Each structure stands twice: as C-alpha cells, then as structure tokens.
Amino acid sequence: MPVLRTSVDVTSDAYRANRTGLAALMAAHDEQVTLAVGGGGERYVARHRERGKLTVRERVELLVDRGAPFLELSPLAAWGTEFHVGASIVTGIGVVSGVECVIIGHDPTVRGGTMNPYTLKKNLRALEIARVNRLPLINLVESGGADLPTQGDLFVPAGQIFRDLTELSAMRIPTVALVFGNSTAGGAYVPGMCDHAVMVDNRAKVFLGGPPLVKMATGEESGDEELGGAAMHSRVSGLSDYFAVDELDCIRIGRQIVADLNWQKLGPGPSHAADEPRYDVDELLGIASADLRVPFDPREVVARVVDGSRFDEYKSLYGTSLVTGWASIHGFPVGILANAQGVLFMDEAKKATEFILLANQLDVPLLFLQNVTGYMVGKDYEQAGIIKDGAKMINAVTNSEVPHLTVIMGASYGAGNYGMCGRAYRPRLLFTWPNAKIAVMGPQQLAGVLSIVARQSAEAAGRPFDEAADEVQRRAVEDQIERESHAFFNSGKLYDDGIIDPRDTRTVLGLALSAVHSNVVRGRAGFGVFRM
C-alpha cells in the first residue's frame, strides 16, 4: 500500500500559529476537565472520604484492568449551564477482566449524585453505546435520584434508562450493578433490572421509598438497613446476588462477574500490521488550522493516524475536495473520508456515495474526518443537481450498516455535517478537536444572510434601511453564533462524545475500533432509492 509523504514545515509561521492556538484551546479544555475530575469540590470530597468511601474515579480505576486505558466520554457535559461540568456522572469504555465494557458511575460528591437533565442525556448515550457496540455494562451506583427542581424535565424521559437496561438484557448484553450507596426511588430499579447486582454492607441503601416517605405514606417505622440494606436484600428479598463486605470487595466481585461471562467478540480482530505512523503525531497540533478560514491537507492528518502512514487513495484525481481511501488503524481496516477544502461539490458527493457503498460491500468500518463548510450553492450548481447528489451521499451515510466513527477536526457547517456523519447520523462514536466549530454556517455568513434579508424586507416595504442598527445586529448575531458553535458549547450539549487532543486521535480511534468490533461488522446488502 502506498505511503503518504509529508510537506509540513514545522518552522513556518502558519505551523507555529496553529500550534499556539490549539495549545491554548487544549489548556482551556484541560481546566474544565479538572473541574469535572474535582467532583463537588474539596469540601464534599473530604466529607465523602471521611465516610470511608472511594471517589467515583477511584472506583473506576480499581475496576479497570491495571495499566489498561479508560476512554472517558463526554467529560464536559453540562458545560456552560447551571449544573456542574461533567453532569455528576462519569461514563466511558474500559477493559475489565480483559473485556471492553461501558462503565457508568455516579459522582456522589456532586449534589449527592443526583440526576439532572444533562446527567440523563449522558447516561442514555452511554447505554446507547453499550447497545450498538454490544459492550457489557457496569453501573457504579450511588445516587440520590432525580434533582427534584428539574423533575419536570426528567421524570418522563428518565424511564428510558430502565427500558434500555432491560433491552440490553434481552439482547444478551450483560448488565452489572455495583451498589456503593443510595439507590433510591426510581434508582432502585437499576440493580433490579441489571442481570447481576452486588451490594456493599452498611453502605447500599436500595428502596423505593426511604424511612421518611414510608412513615408519611403508611405510618410504619423502619430503618435504612431493614428497609433496603445489603444484608436484607442478600438474605431476605433476594434483590442482591452478592454481598460485599466493603467497596474493594464489591469491585473484586464485579471484576469476577465479568471474568465469568466468557465474553467473545463477534467482529474480526486486527488483520493488518499495527506499526506506528512514520511521522510525529505531535505535529498534529500545528497542522490543524486555528483559523478555520484557512484550509489544511487532511492527508497530513491521515499520515499521522493510520498504521505505517499507509493510505491507498480512491479516485485521487476526481472530486478532489474530498479525500477517500483505505488504511488501517491499530491493525483494524478502515475506509476514510476526509474533507480537503471544506466545500462539497457534486463530484465529491458522488465519490463519497460510491466509496460508502464499496465499504459496505467489503464489511469495512468508515472513518469520517470532518472539516466541511457544506455543499456548494449557486445557480450553476443548483441547475446541475447538487441537491440530488447531496441526497445520494446522505442516503448512503444514513443506510450504511458498517460501523461509523467521526472526528470533527475543524468546521462542521450546514448539511456537510449531515453528509459527513454528524451526530444525527448516529456514528458509533464521535469526537471533536478543540478548534472545531459546529453550526448551520459560519458566524459572518449567517449574520450576512440575516442582514440581506432585512435589507430586502425594508426595500419591499418602502422604508429606509437603518445601517447603524444593522451593524449592531450583525455583531450580536456573530457573537451568538461564535459562542454556540464553540467546541465546549457543543460538547456540553453532548453533540459529541468528547473533545480530544489532536495528538491522541490515533489512540482514541484504536480504542474505538476495538470496541465496535465487539459486535458484528457487516455492511448493508441493499440501499434505498438514489435520485438520478
């Protein structure tokens, strides 16, 4: 397979400017992640430790195999909202007893681990990842239930958590609940609906109604332990399958449960040489444009992500603003679609459609590397059928059944977000770089469109156009779109599965590819109607 060549000049002003810009964005990102890692703050973490309890991240670290990676998902959930960054829950993919599992852990140092609307979205996304990739699920339970002031946004949709748990079980995807503390009211159904439940002595409290509620509802006097303690559920109700003497014992039992699954992946293992790229991954920090108006060659990214920098480009002379081709990452074959100049023309759309069909014929996963400003507009392009060709591409992306992975490494505007497998098109996992921007269009373009519409409206009504007011409005719109297209904003809304350091892209994709191969990797035999 051909080896990509590089033309990156690490001494150029452009490279240095990009590196400085992305390094600053990564530093800002790391500050926010530090807030999430810190939980509810020193005071509440100290109180948690005084009770002899491990933090949620310590539980995850002990659960995951020693030295194995943990791919944390959505650490910036709820960023920019009234809720704590991270949304009081930790989710991710980690290797437990040699098995890749989805892990969901409540953080009891953040408002007792209560669930707010962003906690719910993050929880449901983790359940979806477990389902579509066929990954066993482990819940680390210690939650005070719903955040009552926001119950109006929680109660109805939160029922999906229980539906998804039972659906996983029906699909023969194992579910495990390790209960370290409160699991009350609706939360009591989490261990109730998991295949395996482990409860910690004198810590677990699992009941539909706690002592105060029982007193109010029935007049009955009862204590936590007799109402929902680990001993009672292990000896009397039978809700607990295993009685753990402490947290470490609970984690040990959880690891043994996973070991006893005798789990086998359904997808093929790595089949290519997994040698390192020929070029330094550290250079990715200077390759991606800090200024999204400046394009960059995606082959420079591919050369630092794929095995041995080998890339067999498909239709290299046709539809050149979209790069397509075959490669492997950590030994797993992939088909890659990467935007070169931002705009998708008719030829690029048709090229992408054919390539996606081929990947489905060959049962090869697809990797979308987005830096796209949308499909081309204009009279000539509309008359030539850009809508039909774009529809072909979106049809192929929608109905393709091989696993899709997406990395947004720059702009993600307009229908280009859709055609290049944005969140709405359900990639198995989607990550962004810190310079990414996601919006219907760029801030200046959107503000300009609104200005033109307002000017035309004034002319049609025969009234003078207020230039000063228009300028104020343009600036306000640009500022709004700049904020709402920011990577942190979109990650906070869970429009991605996390922001990653560009230099970690190969590692993250290797973990993701390994995870998706837990399920069957098979392409679609037939597609819908393609508009000709």
Structural account:
- The protein contains 20 helices and 17 strands.
- It is of the alpha/beta class.
- Strands 1, 2, 3, 4, 5, 6, 7 and 8 form an 8-stranded mixed beta sheet that branches.
- Helix 17 runs antiparallel to helix 18 (467-484).
- The longest helix has 25 residues, at 13-37.
- It is globular.
In terms of topology, how is this protein built?
Layout: H1 13-37, H2 42-50, H3 56-63, E1 70-73, E2 89-96, E3 99-106, H4 117-133, E4 137-143, H5 155-170, E5 175-184, H6 189-193, E6 196-200, E7 205-207, H7 211-218, H8 224-228, H9 230-237, E8 242-244, H10 247-259, H11 284-287, H12 298-302, E9 312-314, E10 322-329, E11 332-339, E12 343-344, H13 346-362, E13 366-372, E14 374-375, H14 379-384, H15 386-399, E15 404-413, H16 414-419, E16 429-432, E17 437-439, H17 443-461, H18 467-484, H19 487-492, H20 505-516
Helix pairs in contact: 4-5, 13-15, 17-18
